[in-house]
Design brief:
alpha/beta; Quinone Oxidoreductase, Chain A, domain 1; Rossmann fold; seven-stranded mixed beta sheet; six-stranded parallel beta sheet; 10 helices
């Protein structure tokens, strides 16, 4: 079977190859054999390939990449609870082996206390970018027939659902009736966050480096969100990029919730200045560099104490979050038919992946492992 492998994953000589490997087989009754249809590509994959972020399985040098799965059950163990033909996706993280880790023992590896978890296609476990994969049924999620064409969106949507569930839990401390939200970034995670907020009826603003005439801006305008293109890329001396100057200064508006989806840390600092009293900042962006900026810590501390502001980070997701993601995707499809399909801008065959330039991908890219790509093009060859 065709397999996308990052050779020498943790070294400077790492490179992507298409390898031929043996088709796996079910080993016990609690497993399922999945025929992989598509695997999404996201920012984590870019970091793994370009910044050597991936960690191979113990004792190995190579890593099969890919963690956003869409597949069909080909064979199912008697105790798996699945049947051949079921459309499925799968969780990414697996629990650590430490018996003292209460969260992993309670099937909440997304809150692992030891850091010794593994993640499919990311850390210590091979991923899904292959034609077939065997998976423990405990980590497999059935996708309803009406959503199987959108299954590649379930894993990234689950990240939003985990974050939003965390925010909702924290905000139970008082009567919280959020009306206006700000999303920082309009990549796939930012777009999903904005779409989710619109399905909930929140006035939604998006601040992004994408141009005002970009496809991202058009998509957001189409769902009733307000898009604002940031003017530049470096801090303005006040810990941000003009975010507070535009909203708090020029327009005089604040937000009940801010979702940071870029990983550009100066925005996280400046977000406090556009956050309302009792507001909350949720962040899922990862900062891959060692950027250092002046931080107005006294101002931030005053806003957090006197203004009851809160900041919470979130990573990964549970099976319950995947279930909520399916419900939310159904809401999106009902309110904005065909929109999620249209956000898949790049589709590739396995043989094209070694030549991909990740920074030239449009909104969302997928690799069609077990089905033909409708476009089958390379976004750009590696320079």
């Amino acid at each position: 079977m065709k397999t996308i492998v990052l050779k020498n994953a943790a070294s400077e000589s790492a490179r992507i190859e298409v390898a031929e490997m043996a088709k796996p087989a079910i080993r016990h009754d609690g497993e399922v054999l999945i025929r992989v249809l598509s695997v999404g590509i996201d920012g984590t994959d870019k970091e793994i390939v370009t910044h050597r972020y991936g960690v191979p399985e113990e004792g190995e040098d190579d890593l099969i990449i890919g963690h956003e799965l869409s597949g069909i059950v080909e064979a199912a163990g008697a105790a798996s609870g699945f049947r051949p033909g079921d459309a499925v996706t799968a969780l990414v993280r697996r629990p650590c082996a430490d018996p003292a880790c209460a969260n992993c023992r309670a099937d909440r590896a997304d809150y692992c206390e030891t850091g010794a978890y593994t993640e499919r296609g990311i850390k210590g476990s091979h991923g899904f970018m292959r034609e077939y994969v065997v998976e423990d049924a405990r980590y497999v999620v059935k996708v309803p027939d009406d959503l199987k064409q959108l299954a590649v969106w379930v894993e990234p949507q689950s990240i939003f659902e985990k974050l939003w569930a965390t925010i909702a839990c924290i905000q139970q401390r008082f009567v919280w009736q959020p009306k206006r939200a700000l999303v920082l970034g309009s990549g796939p995670m930012g777009l999903l966050s904005a779409l989710s907020l619109r399905t909930m009826g929140l006035e939604t603003h998006v601040w992004s480096l994408h141009a005002g005439d970009s496809r991202q801006a058009a998509v957001l305008a189409g769902v009733g969100a307000e898009f604002r293109s940031a003017y530049g890329g470096e801090p303005d001396g006040e810990g941000g990029c003009g975010l507070a100057r535009h909203y708090a200064g020029k327009r005089g508006i604040g937000f009940d919730v801010v979702l940071e989806c870029t990983g550009y840390s100066p925005l996280l600092v400046e977000a406090h200045r556009v956050l309302n009293r009792n507001g909350i900042i949720g962040t899922v962006g990862i900062s891959p560099t060692d950027r250092r900026i002046p931080v107005p810590m006294d101002d931030i501390n005053q806003r957090m104490v006197i203004g009851n502001q809160t900041v919470v980070g979130s990573v990964n997701a549970s099976k319950a979050d995947f279930a909520r993601a399916l419900d939310r995707i159904r809401d999106m499809e009902r309110l904005y038919p065909g929109l999620l399909r249209g956000l898949i801008t790049d589709e590739f065959a396995p043989e094209q992946v070694p030549s991909l330039a990740f920074d030239r991908i449009g909104i969302k890219a997928v690799v069609r492992m077990g089905e033909p790509g409708r476009r089958g093009r390379i976004a750009s060859p590696i320079a």
